[in-house]
Design a protein that fits this description.
By secondary structure, the chain is α/β, with parallel strands linked by helices. Helix content is 34%, strand content 24%.
């Protein structure tokens, strides 16, 4: 969404009003998920996508009418029926909820959107809580916002101290990860929480063939990456041209110059057991939420024994992915790298990594409907 915020800032700096549309909640199968954004400018042009097709066209038109009519922020629900999906060539059906947020007076909003831009570039992380629903009888307005940065500086209010406190708690849970969520309070208020920070980071410890394949996958998946190796011929910008930095250092020191956060994945893939021991200990002592170690179960058993001897807490050792990756049956560096990145992405999104294959119940429904065609025996 970085480019959407960039274009929003440009529009506001030019004095042009606009509408920022955000997917805030979905049910069922939909072409986009919460957090997707579309900027609709005053001239009708736009940046970003809500998934295309009839959904995007209708919401785009509604945003233009909202901007023209001078109305406040609003939430719209869109049911993507099978008929509408088929019309646009989509194989999906579900409900999407959108926040249409007009920005006509940029004076209060522009500084915060600039902070979002800077957060993507490595400056202080920032979170935004937006009121997107209230119980019947409430006078609170949809679109009201509270901003919170990593230093706990706030701006704005949701018009309730209690609601502000709950929003701050939710933002702090997401701030390190750059994620979003739709949250309903016990009182029935609905909040959309967004957190913005650096892109997810991959650190590979070891610059061999598998690390090379890993970093090739990392960029297209939205990860920035670092490479650590004690050999300059394996950690250099020529071998890893898209790396944020290639670091030549001993493995027990190599992470010290990298900004490790819970949004970081570290993969240990050095050239030998002695180096794996050093790299693994440095990785588990860091703030990285994901630590994976390449190698056999026998080798990783010995590494775990050493981690216990070094006094690493059991909970931290249990969280290490060793052997690293999902069981895809691959053998080449590229196949192994795919299994590792698949596991990293799955865990970052809180998914199991299991197959999405249709279960027996759905298969039975398809068989029943498919064989019930008139005239078919």
């Amino acid at each position: 969404m970085q480019h959407v915020f960039h274009e929003t800032v440009k529009a506001l700096e030019a004095g042009d009003p606009c509408v920022l549309v955000t997917v805030i909640q979905t049910e069922g199968s939909t072409p986009q998920k919460p957090g997707a954004k579309l900027l609709v400018r005053a001239d009708g042009s736009g940046v970003g996508t809500l998934g295309g097709g009839c959904v995007e066209g209708d919401i785009w038109f509604a945003a233009k009418m909202l901007l023209r009519g001078g109305g406040p922020a609003e939430v719209r629900d869109y049911e993507l029926t099978e008929e509408l999906a088929a019309r646009d060539g989509l194989i999906c059906g579900g409900t999407m909820h959108f926040l249409l947020d007009p920005i006509r007076e940029p004076v209060d909003v522009l500084p915060e959107l600039r902070k979002v831009e800077r957060a993507y570039d490595g400056d202080t992380a920032i979170g935004i809580a937006t009121l997107v629903g209230a119980p019947e009888g409430s006078s609170l307005a949809v679109g009201t916002k509270l901003y919170l940065d990593a230093a706990r500086n706030t701006k704005g209010t949701l018009s309730s101290e209690t609601l502000d406190a709950q929003a701050i708690d939710r933002i702090e849970l997401l701030l390190d990860y750059g994620k979003c969520e739709h949250h309903t309070t016990d009182e029935g208020f609905q909040l959309f929480i967004e957190a913005f920070t650096l892109p997810p980071t991959l650190v590979v410890m070891g610059g061999g063939h598998i690390s090379k394949a890993l970093t090739t996958l990392a960029g297209p998946l939205g990860y920035q990456y670092y490479v650590v190796d004690d050999r300059p011929e394996f950690a250099n910008p020529e071998r890893f041209p898209d790396a944020v930095e290639t670091i030549v250092a001993e493995y027990d020191k190599g992470l010290e110059s990298i900004p490790i956060t819970p949004n970081t994945a570290v993969v240990v893939a050095t050239r030998g057991h002695r180096y794996d021991d050093m790299a693994a200990e440095a990785a588990v002592r860091s703030k990285a939420s994901y630590v994976g170690i390449l190698g056999s179960k026998r080798k990783n058993l010995m590494i775990f024994e050493e981690l216990f001897r070094k006094g690493i807490p059991e909970e931290r050792i249990r969280a290490v992915r060793a052997p690293v990756g999902l069981d895809l049956g691959g053998r080449t560096p590229e196949e192994i790298a795919l299994s590792i990145m698949s596991e990293i992405v799955a865990l970052r999104h809180g998914a199991s990594g299991s197959a999405l294959q249709m279960d027996n119940r759905l298969f039975g429904i398809a068989r029943e409907k498919g064989t019930a065609v008139p005239g078919r025996s």
